[in-house]
Model the fold of this input.
Amino acid sequence: MGQVEDSARQRTQGKGDRAQAAPKGTRDGSAPIRVGLLGAGTVGSQVARLLVEQGDELAQRVGRPLEIAGVACRHPRKVSQPWIDHSLLIDDTAHVATHADIVVELIGGIEPARTLVLQALRSGASVVTANKALLAKHGPELYRAAEANGVDLYFEAAVAGAIPLVRPLRESLAGDTITSVVGILNGTTNYILDEMTTKGLDFDVALKDAQAKGYAEADPTGDIEGEDAANKAAIVATLAFHTPVGIDDVAVEGITKVTADDIAAATAEHKVVKLLSVVSNGEHGVSARVYPALIPEEHPLASVHGSFNAAFVHAQAADDLMFYGRGAGGAPTASAVLGDIVTEARHIAGGCVGPSIPLYGDLPKAPLDASRAAFAVRFRICDRPGILAAISKTFADYGISINGINQDLKPTPHNPGYSGELQTLRVVTHMCDETTLRRCVEEVCKLSFVVGDPSILRVM
Done:
C-alpha cells in the first residue's frame, strides 16, 4: 500500500482518542488524496464525473489534489462513462476498500457493504457513504469503529439526498437540544401523493406514472411501504437524541391504503396527505414513526410537491428550522457525497479528523400507547339503519371522543350478498392514544355491516 499505509498510520496514531489525531503538517502537502469508489451506478458514476470535471477547483478548495485510486463494481466491462478511466475499474471491492485515503461506499444493502466499510475504517481510511439501510441497522457499530480508528464516517447523502440535514443535526445544532424532527424523507411517496392530490389519480395510476418517470423502482415496495423513510428516521433520531435508534425501533406504515376518497376528504378540509417521518424525544422516551398523515394546507410541509423532500426541526433554542430541496436523483445525491469527500479531504490535508457522533444517551423507547393524536378513520359500510349509533357507541365504550362523522354520498361498488351500494363512513376523533384507537377500530370492523379493511390517518 505504500503511501496509503503511511497516511493511515499517521491518522490513526493514538487510536481511541480523536484529540490525538495526526497534527497539521505531518503529511506530504503535495501528494494527491486517494479516493476509492465502491460502486459505479447512477450515483457512483456521477461522483466520478464531478471529481474529474471539477478536479482543479476541488484541489484549490482542499489544498491538495483529489485522485481516483480505484473504482470497484460487479461488471467493470459494462461501465461506459467516458470520464471513468477504465484502467481503474476492478471487481475486487476489498482491494479498493483498503487502498485509499477516502473510501466512498455506494453499493447499498447490508452486506458486503458493512464488511467493506469496517475494512476501510480499520485500514485507516475515512468513509463516505449514502447507505441508509446500513446506517439504520449498524450505524452505532460503524460510528464506534470510525472513532476507534481515528478516522471519519460521513453520510450526508443517506438522508434527504442533496439537502444538508445530517451535518446540521450532527454539528450546527450540537449546542442545542432537539426535541423533534418531522420530515418528508421519501421522494417517491411524496410524488405519488402529490399526483393523487393535484390530479385526482388513484394510487395505482399514480404509482405507474412515478415508475414511468423514474421516480419509483420497478419494485417500489421499499418506498410505498415506508421502509426507506423508516431507515432515514432511525438515522435522524440517533443523531438528534444522541442515543442508538435502529430500524427495528421504528414503527412503520406505508401509503398503499391511501385512496382517492382519503385525498378528496382531506382537500375538502383544507388538508393534504403526506408520508411523514416523525422522531421525538418526550416524557415517555424516544419515538420514531413513519406514517401517512393529514396536515393543514398552511403548514410548510404541505407545500412540498413532487419528489422533493423537507424536514422540519424543532430545537429548544433555535426554535423551528426547515430544510428543503431535492431528495433523490443521481446528480443531487452525488452533490451531497462530494461535499462529504471534500470535507474529509480537508481534514486529511490538515492532519485532523472531524467531530465524532456522541451516543452517550441511553434513552428509553416510548411505548405505542404513549403516542397520542387525532385520527381520521375511514370505514366501508353497507348502508343500513342504526349504523351511526352502533359505531358511535363502540367509540364511546373505548373512551374515544368523536369530533365529526361524514358519510360520503359517492357510492362505491356493490358487495356480494348486499343489494344496496356500499358507502364510505369517515370518523374523525379528538386526541386519543393509538393503542386504544386501534383496538376500537378492530371492534368496529367486527360489526356485520362493515366491509374490508379500514383506513387510519393521523391528523397533524
